[in-house]
Amino acid sequence: MVPALRSYLTSKAPFTEAELEQFEATATVKQLKRRQYLLRSGDVCPHMAFVVQGCLRLYRTDEEATEHILRFAIENWWITDAESFRTGLPAVGAIDALEDTQVLLWSKESFDRLKKEIPAFSALESQLAGRNLDAQVNRLYAAISRSAEERYHAFVQAFPDFYQRIPLRMIASYLGVSRETLSRIRKHPGA
């Protein structure tokens, strides 16, 4: 098994050796080069991905071809286009690599089977889904109640690893501000 996944899983729940081997047997390893897509908009999202190494982003593009970044994922994070993965409908979003990246992939059938056959994983997945929902609600609340400067400082404090690895234009997109606004905030902190 990929040591990073084994370490991640055993830090979250008391998995048996047989359960860990089941994770390994159902996973596919995929290497992505920087800027390579894991999922293109319009394709059905066939996999749940666990990031072993690297950095991915999930984003959507509007009618004016402006990218809106919904989330990032680095080592030990899960990522998918949840709506497409769950429903089998074409994805509105896209997922691509910001760095050379290694992921482990599970098909929907394999992922659902793991949840059904391994109670500890089902509980973990439910916990992660709940935390993801909480994070989305908190991000929405911040977007409507906090200034751009407050959102930027909260981002840097909450995700120092992201801040060091992700281009500022993408951080601006994630925060819902222009590059110019983000540059002004960074030049004049506290202003």
Automatic annotation (TrEMBL):
This is Cyclic nucleotide-binding protein. InterPro entries: cNMP-bd_dom, cNMP-bd_dom_sf, RmlC-like_jellyroll. It comes from the Bacteria. Residues 36-114 form the Cyclic nucleotide-binding domain. The lineage of its organism: Bacteria, Pseudomonadati, Bacteroidota, Cytophagia, Cytophagales. Signal peptide: none annotated. Gene3D superfamilies: Jelly Rolls.
